[in-house]
Amino acid sequence: MASQVVAAAIAAGVSLVVAVGTVTVTYLTTRASLRRDHERQEAEFRRTMTARLYDRRVAVYPGLFAATAAFRRSQLNDAQDLRGHLRDALARVDEWHGQEGGLMLSADAYARLLDLRGLVRQCIQENPDRERLEELRHDIWSCKNRLRKAMRADLGLLFDEDQQPRELT
Predict the structure, then answer these.
(1) Do 166 and 159 touch, CB atoms closer than 8 A?
(2) Number of H helices and number of E strands within the chain?
(3) What is the mean pLDDT of the chain?
(4) CA 24, chain centre distance (Å)
């Protein structure tokens, strides 16, 4: 009878170890599966939101590209009334910024937009001499280029040829 009790105790112990092992493996497997599902859903959500942001940027950014055309070197040089030209251009940029466009800009593009707006306002408010006026024109043109470069980067359109320094108008 003692051997039957020992055999029953051993069987119970083995059953207990197997049950604990099975529960532990099931718990760890389920936990890992839930974590993978959560990470997959989170990555899918980020991709979806990124795609939606990209689509909105593609729809909205052309408006700012058009508004900043007034800051091209040829436009700045050909303006008969530079202050009036800059005021009109700044109004178009401000209008774009005040609408949906201001929400779509990346942090870098937003900083570049603020730089451009500040510089244009400075040029409008100052009464610069000829040398300072040329410097401000160049600075506005450069600022416009940095903004457009940041916007192209937002759209993922910054190709190798755009990274090469070149003279833009």
Answers:
(1) no
(2) 7, 0
(3) 87
(4) 43
Q: How far apart are CA 44 and CA 38, in angstroms?
A: 10
The Cα–Cα gap between 134 and 28 comes to: 69
Widest distance between CA atoms in the chain: 115
Location of structure tokens 């005021």: 87
Average of per-residue pLDDT across 52-63:
90
Tokens found for residue 150: 């940041």
Tokens 């942001």 appear where?
Answer: 53
> CB within 8 A of 93, min separation 6: which ones?
64, 67, 68, 113, 116, 117, 120
Instruction: Tell me the whole-structure pTM to 2 decimals.
Output: 0.70
Residue 113's Cβ-count burial label (10 Å; 0-12, 13-18, 19+) is buried
Percent helix, strand, coil in the chain, to 5, is 85, 0, 15
156: left (phi over 0), alpha (psi -120 to 50) or beta: left
Q: Residue 161: which pLDDT band, with cuts at 50, 70 and 90?
A: very low
* pLDDT single digits (tens) 76-95: 888 888 889 999 999 999 99
| Residue 157 reports pLDDT greater than 60 | no
- Phi, psi at residue 166, to the nearest 5°? -155, 165
